[in-house]
Design goal:
Shape: elongated
Bound molecules: adenosine-5'-diphosphate
Helix content: 25-40%
Number of helices: 14
Length: 521
């Protein structure tokens, strides 16, 4: 039965609008195709083309036995800058889609038999931009019913999802890589919802704590697995890290006792809190690392240092005594100048050795909580002056002292002197080019503050947070300056045990300013 044609003025209406593709469809020479000119097209075709042209959603139409093609402006970008556009318009599907025709044709045919299809994020490689491109689509083929009730074409309504699929693939790959890294590093991972206290963790954490492998872990059970002596410290650290105004960094080591097996482990938890605009914690997540072996090695190292330094103390003390006798003798006995030079040299080096040994012994005492303080009331300004007089004698650095003359503190004179000697000693050691050191004494509120400022090599600000750690040295290999990295650690412990504060300001190449405070008595 011949299909009904549309009266002349009306078919124009169907083909109005549609941007670039509307223009191309109107001006295309349809007489050269099996469809003939638009005035002879069935209304179903005109209506479908009209719907396509007016739609902002990508659509493609295969019409009739030769699968003659139409598409709209929304579909057009998917054909790329060079490729099938505009040649696909009015052409048969088979000619246009040679590379995937075997996959496309059956779907068109199903539509021509009245069936619909739906595919999601399907790979449909196509030739565009001068190459075969991996393109993903979510699309449906649906039949277009003509005036005689049969299907006259396949309307493809589609959406290119290449970007989404590739983004999902990237996320998947990243997640796999992350998982791989977590496994390789044997890390536990955890996340705490600050609003609900919902605590989730990976299997490793559950195993270490001796908790069941459930999607959610009761925070109270996790805390229960922490040894009693560490429990409060951990709870407080969690609360403090989530408080508004905190820097959000969580780093704490503690011991857990598996609730199942009783196995003990020392773990280091590191995490980060994310805050919203109102400063409220919204996310708290991190990792857990088993550091039991490291702690054991550290303990053995400490034990070794403790034993070695104690063993060294006796021979060094008697060496020192013998040397002192020798030094007296060379002054009174008739000996050659060489004797005097070498005993002086031996004296200097023995002094350095005694200082190094003292540092090691002090660390051992700090570790064992045995660094005793013997407190008296004294004028801190006098201590600074006496101490600096002494230091200046053996150095070509010029030390100037400014500020308050009377600052009384109740402290251990010898230990505070030790801190000052360390500060000034470092100021001399780390400023080989500049010879100036400024010491300021001042009262800040109810505290006395001593500032030692040098104009030496300075310190990279990134390194400052570690400066008071045990064995920490900025130049770890110690190529330029000798030392053990213990002086500041010992100083920090001494000052803290006096309820004071210790700190540093510095810039690389611009000198440093070390300070400590003590409560005024
Ligand atoms: P040591 O000087 O024996 O290495 P300290 O604990 O006294 O140990 O100092 C730790 C580190 O801090 C030093 O190794 C050095 O890198 C840095 N440091 C300390 N004082 C200064 C200073 N005045 N100028 C530059 N760097 C310093």
């Amino acid at each position: 039965m011949p299909e009904k044609t549309i009266p002349q003025p009306l078919y124009h209406k169907y083909l109005e609008g549609g941007g670039e593709m509307g223009e191309r469809i109107r001006t295309f020479d349809w007489s050269a195709t099996t469809l003939g000119t638009p005035d002879t097209w069935p209304q179903s075709l005109l209506l479908t083309v009209s719907t396509m042209l007016r739609s902002r959603f990508p659509m493609f139409l295969f019409w009739g036995r030769h699968h003659i093609q139409f598409y709209n402006d929304a579909y057009r970008p998917s054909l790329g800058a060079s490729g099938k556009h505009p040649s696909a318009l009015g052409r048969s599907g088979k000619e246009s889609w040679q590379e995937i025709w075997s996959a496309v044709e059956p779907q068109i045919e199903r539509s021509l038999h009245g069936e619909s299809t739906y595919s999601e994020n399907e790979l449909v490689p196509m030739f565009r931009d001068g190459k075969i491109d991996e393109v993903y689509w979510t699309y449906s083929y649906s039949p277009v019913i003509t005036e005689d009730g049969t299907s006259g074409g396949a309307l493809v309504i589609c959406h290119e999802t290449t970007t989404n699929v590739k983004a999902l693939k990237t996320i998947d790959e990243t997640a796999t890589q992350l998982q791989f890294a977590i496994e390789a590093a044997e890390l536990g991972t955890w996340e705490l919802d600050p609003k609900t206290n919902r605590f989730v963790a990976n299997k490793r954490v559950a195993d270490w704590f001796g908790l069941p492998h459930t999607p959610e872990i009761a925070l109270s059970s996790a805390i229960e697995a922490i040894v009693p002596e560490d429990r409060e410290r951990v709870s407080n650290a969690i609360i403090d890290t989530m408080k508004p105004g905190s820097d959000g960094n969580y780093d704490i080591s503690y011991t857990v006792n598996s609730l199942q097996s009783g196995e003990r482990r020392v773990v280091r938890a590191k995490g980060k809190v994310i805050f919203d605009q109102d400063g409220e914690a919204t996310r708290f997540s991190g990792t857990l690392q088993d550091i039991t072996d490291d702690v054991e090695i550290e303990k053995r190292k400490d034990e070794f240092i403790s034993v070695a330094s104690h063993e060294l103390k006796t021979p060094i003390t008697s060496l020192n005594a013998s040397l002192q006798i020798l030094q007296k003798l060379v002054k009174t006995e008739p000996v050659s100048d060489k004797f005097k030079t070498f005993t002086a040299k031996a004296g200097n080096n023995l002094n350095k050795l005694v200082h190094l040994l003292d540092d090691l012994l002090n660390v051992t005492k700090i570790q064992q909580g045995q660094l005793a303080l013997s407190k008296n009331r004294f004028n801190l300004s006098e201590l600074v002056r006496d101490s600096c007089d002494h230091i200046s004698q053996g150095s070509d650095h010029e030390i100037s002292i400014n500020g308050t003359d009377e600052l009384f503190v109740y402290a251990d004179y010898r230990r505070i002197d030790q801190v000052l000697v360390n500060f000034v000693g470092n100021a001399i050691k780390y400023s080989p080019q500049s010879k100036k050191i400024d010491i300021t004494l001042e009262q800040v509120g109810s505290d006395a503050r001593v500032i030692v400022k040098d104009y030496g090599i300075g310190i990279n600000p990134e390194k400052l947070p570690h400066l008071f750690d045990r064995y920490y040295r900025v130049d770890a290999l110690g190529h330029q300056f000798s030392g053990l990295g213990l002086g500041l650690y010992i100083s920090s412990d001494i000052i803290k045990r006096h309820d004071g504060n210790i700190g540093v300001e510095s810039q690389w190449g611009e000198g440093s300013q070390f300070w400590f405070t003590l409560p005024i008595d």
